[in-house]
Amino acid sequence: MNRYSRHTLLDLVGTEGQQKLNDASVTIVGCGGLGAIAAAYLAGAGIGNLTLIDADTPDITNLHRQVFYNLESNEKKAIQLKRYLRKFNPDININAITKFLSKSNISESLMKTDIVLECTDDIYTKYLINDYCNIHHITMIYGSLHKYDGYLSTFMNRDSEDIHLRDIFPEPDLDVPNCSEVGVLNTIAGMLGILQANEAIKVICGMKDLMAGQLLIYNIVTNEQTKLKLRKNWNKDMIQTWKNSSYKMEYNCDIPEIEVAQLMASPESFHIISILNGNNHEAITDDTEHIQAADFNIYDWEPEDERPTVIYCTSGKVSLQLALQLKEEHPDHTILSLKGGIKAVRKHRNNTKDGH
Fold this sequence. Notes:
By secondary structure, this protein is an alpha/beta fold. About 35% of the residues lie in helices and about 15% in strands.
């Protein structure tokens, strides 16, 4: 029996719709909790050309929701996922790109795609993809997570009147925490990944009732969902915005970071603070203080002593933002972010064990 026979029986898909799926090119940026699940269902649906973009490797704190990976291999997520999907459906073309998207390389990665699923947890990457897709009229399916909630919208990008990310959030909000800071229930990641895949299938097959012009908010605990009707709020020149944006954090001062090797050489010389979410907290030393990011009040915090303060998170991004904010409040105190976060600490420890 044909692999897609259950699709071709459907009046909204049929033989014609299945052929459209087989001819389509879809790119998934971010192969984590959202992207990996979406990729599996799109591969199952017979998307003819599937591109997976992710430069990261699996982390043990992510495996509760990133169910296709293991820690036995040091391979990138995109490579591991590609291998799994090839066994699952050998009849489709799958391409894995193991680098982070940037303004300089996004064109070569997305220029030949029909639809982009935005499945990252990096705020600047979201705007990079949004603006590129808007300029080049590529449909983008937006997804994000916060604890128990999932957010979904489809940005058609056909003309200047179509809603996109900047109509909802005009500029990147650095105060919005990601999963590593506030946590996320694994099932909402799976649910939203499937919803993103579903939107892609609907767009390709020409179905109605898309999430274009709407924002779906789904709570996995209460099973309540809210649909917000969106309106056009952002009317600036997108091409000019693209030219003026670097899509990475800009600093007006020296970047206040410390390398792992420097910290580990003399950890007692620093006051070390972990801002990891409670369940993900890993102490670097016995004296490590723990204040999870969601509870950190920059206006109430005071340095413990004369020692420089070192703050760390999962990858060093959120701790760097916090260090910059705290430096404004305490300009005379040395406040540093641990470059690479707890991931860099684990790597350092493993290398030390191996004698490197």
